[in-house]
Amino acid sequence: MTVEAFVAALKKAGILLTETQVKQFHQYYELLVETNEHVNLTAITEQHEVYLKHFFDSLTVAQYVTSLQTTNQTLIDVGTGAGFPALPLKIAFPQLRVTLVDALQKRVRFLKTVVEALGLDHVTIVHGRAEDIGQEQRFREQFDYATARAVARTSVLAEYTLPFVKIGGQLLVMKGANAQQELGDGEKALHTLGGRFKEAFDFQLPNGDKRFIQIIDKVQKTPKKYPRQAGTPNKKPIQ
Length: 239
Prior knowledge:
Elements: H1 3-12, H2 19-36, H3 47-64, H4 67-70, E1 74-78, H5 86-92, E2 97-102, H6 105-118, E3 123-127, H7 130-133, E4 143-149, H8 154-161, E5 165-175, H9 179-185, H10 187-192, E6 195-204, E7 210-218, H11 232-235
Parallel strand pairs: 1-2, 1-4, 2-3, 4-5
Antiparallel strand pairs: 5-7, 6-7
């Protein structure tokens, strides 16, 4: 996907980028590739692939959850890695207030560099594991939205993310081909943690890759014992 195709595809979806925003995406790409030479951020480095599989893919969630485009709601991105999907969302929709969580200090340093270089405001970057941060009062059940991309299967992801979502907020699950199977396997975990499945959207990226966005409403408080200590959700998913 060329830069021009990226801008055109977003325009077709009703998302218009300014010249400044297009430049910010280019700067983000350059920083990603430059840093990736000595810090493992992504296996995808070709420009057309980054624009399609990282930038465009990250923004698909806003095509289905349109309030992301216009409100200044809060979003937490758990296990954000190189900043996906939160930083593309922040660039495209500057009014969003985003928090990025990652357990690796090297990634956190990269994220801070990007945020500073692009002049983004209302971005909080937190170094730590979701299981620990999810028990901190300043983060627990404070967010309108939580999301995560390529982090864990849904039964595990639920425990990483739902403790951050306020009642009335939503978990936005971004998945590939196994989405429906994972949702079925994760049903008990979602219910236990205060979530309830609302709806799902399936679509294809311009290259034909299948994608799903599943929306989980937060309808009850997450029991205090969740998230469990670091490592436990992955080893012993709620079943």
